[in-house]
Amino acid sequence: MKEPSVRPAVRRPKAKRIAEEDADILVFDAQKLALALAFHLAEEDAPPHMTPRRIAAMYARLRRRSARVSVERRAWAALTNAERLEILLEAAGEERLGV
Question: pLDDT digits over 9-45, tens only?
Fold first, then answer.
């Protein structure tokens, strides 16, 4: 399977961001990235060291660096939850967690 295209997103005016919701690109800001990570970690039975405190610290780091990542919607839909988790971890700068 071809690796999906993951790239940092650029800041766009609010009107453009609203239009992105219907676009072929999924955009994860720091909050969405942290929430998606928490969801996929729970789905994949996260290792015990991925505590709510660690996820909150990760969110704070993502927010400080204004993290934004975009992924093609079609590529995202074709991935398993484990593959999505790996992409999110990579985008967040986290190491592989062995899930």
Answer: 555 555 555 555 557 899 999 999 988 988 888 887 7
Range of the domain at 39: 6-92
CA distance 97 to 95: 6
- The string of DSSP letters for the chain reads -PPPPEEEPPP--HHHHHHHTTSSEEEEEHHHHHHHHHHHHHHTT--TT--HHHHHHHHHHHHHTT-EEEEEHHHHHHS-HHHHHHHHHHHHTPPP---
Reading the block at residue 65, the tokens are: 């660096």
pTM of the predicted structure, to 2 decimals:
0.66
- In this structure, is residue 29 part of a structural domain? yes
Please answer whether residues 93 and 25 qualify as being in contact, where contact means their C-beta atoms are separated by less than 8 angstroms.
no
- Report if residue 71 sits inside a domain: yes
Q: Is residue 73 a part of any domain in this protein?
A: yes
Number of domains observed in the structure of the chain = 1
